[in-house]
């Protein structure tokens, strides 16, 4: 495999893993099902500040796929949730 292509594939894979790691899966959290880190500190918290990434826009997306029990309601009362 071309070494440059290999490096990019690994870099994007690391970014995808970091995105997953930044997601708040704790149903007891006030910010359940959102990102754990603010934009200004996002890459620092994920130890990726030296990878050349920079946040330019935020993407909010949802899916229409029915996955039972994938997103549960937050266990804290009177806070927002995706469901």
In brief:
The chain is an all-alpha fold. It has helices at residues 3-21, 42-45.
Note down, in words, how this protein is organized.
With 83 residues, the protein is mostly helical. The protein has one domain. It has two helices and no strands. It has helices at 3-21, 42-45. It is extended, with a radius of gyration of 16 Å. The mean pLDDT is 76. GO terms for molecular function: phospholipase activity. One of its GO terms (biological process) is lipid catabolic process. InterPro entries: AB_hydrolase_fold.
Number of strands: 0
Gyration radius, rounded: 16 Å
**What is the average per-residue confidence, as pLDDT, rounded to a whole number?**
76
**What structural category do the secondary elements indicate?**
mainly alpha
Strand share of the residues?
Answer: under 5%
Gap between N and C termini: 43 Å
Overall body shape: extended
* Count of separate DSSP helical elements: 2
Sketch the major β-sheet.
none
SSE blueprint and pairings:
Layout: H1 3-21, H2 42-45
What are the defining features of this structure?
83 residues, AB_hydrolase_fold, lipid degradation, single chain, hydrolase, extended, mainly alpha, phospholipase activity
């Amino acid at each position: 495999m071309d070494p440059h292509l290999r490096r990019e594939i690994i870099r994007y894979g690391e970014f995808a893993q970091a995105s997953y790691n930044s997601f708040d899966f704790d149903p007891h959290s006030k910010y359940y099902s959102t990102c754990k880190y603010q934009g200004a500190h996002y890459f620092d918290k994920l130890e990726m500040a030296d990878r050349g990434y920079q946040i330019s826009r935020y993407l909010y997306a949802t899916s229409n796929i029915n996955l039972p029990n994938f997103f549960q309601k937050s266990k804290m009362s009177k806070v927002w949730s995706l469901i």
